[in-house]
Write a structure and sequence with these properties.
The protein has 148 residues and is of the alpha/beta class. The chain has one domain: D-tyrosyl-trna(Tyr) Deacylase, Chain: A (3-Layer(bba) Sandwich). It contains three helices and eight strands. Helix 3 links the parallel strand 6 and strand 7. Helix 1 runs parallel beside helix 3 (99-116). The longest helix is centred in the C-terminal third of the chain and has 18 residues, at 99-116. The protein is globular and about 45 Å long.
Length: 148
């Protein structure tokens, strides 16, 4: 599982011209799920995400988590995080999770995050989406379950 986490001042996601999710101060989380991912792996990733301390404290040090600042989440499914670009110029997505499994785990991630964070918005699994954001920092972190 891979999360690309961007600390944002605001963000939104549209599908077919309609806003389906938006947040203020918090994280945009691009979420890639592979064929070997499980709910247990999702739980580890969620714990790390929720407790990640990358918001500034009163001294400007990155020392605060989403909960500390009443932050919000925008979770977007993105199978392209498993692009394999080693051969040729056209990426292969063979390592991305099959859509049925990936959608179940994606929905699980949204539910579990909602249990911890009051405002969790999300995109539409498998849809063509337009994501807009104002990255604060810029600050972007990549979490990979293989490295936890």
């Amino acid at each position: 599982m891979r999360f690309v986490i961007q600390r944002v001042d605001e963000a939104g996601v549209c599908v077919e011209g309609k806003t389906v999710g938006e947040i203020k101060n918090g994280f945009v989380v691009l979420t890639g799920i592979s064929n070997i991912d499980t709910y247990e792996i999702a739980d580890k990733m969620i714990r790390k995400l929720i407790n990640l301390r990358i918001f500034p404290d009163e001294n400007g040090k990155t020392n605060l988590s989403l909960k500390n600042i009443d932050g919000e989440l925008l979770i977007i499914s993105q199978f392209t995080l498993y692009a394999d670009c080693r051969k040729g110029n056209r990426p292969s997505f063979i390592n991305a999770g099959n859509p049925e499994l990936a959608e179940k785990i994606y929905e699980y991630i949204i539910k579990k995050c909602s249990d911890e964070i009051p405002h969790v918005a999300h995109g539409v699994f498998g849809a063509q989406m337009e994501v807009s954001l104002i990255n604060n920092g810029p600050f972007t972190v990549i979490l990979d379950s293989d490295e936890l």
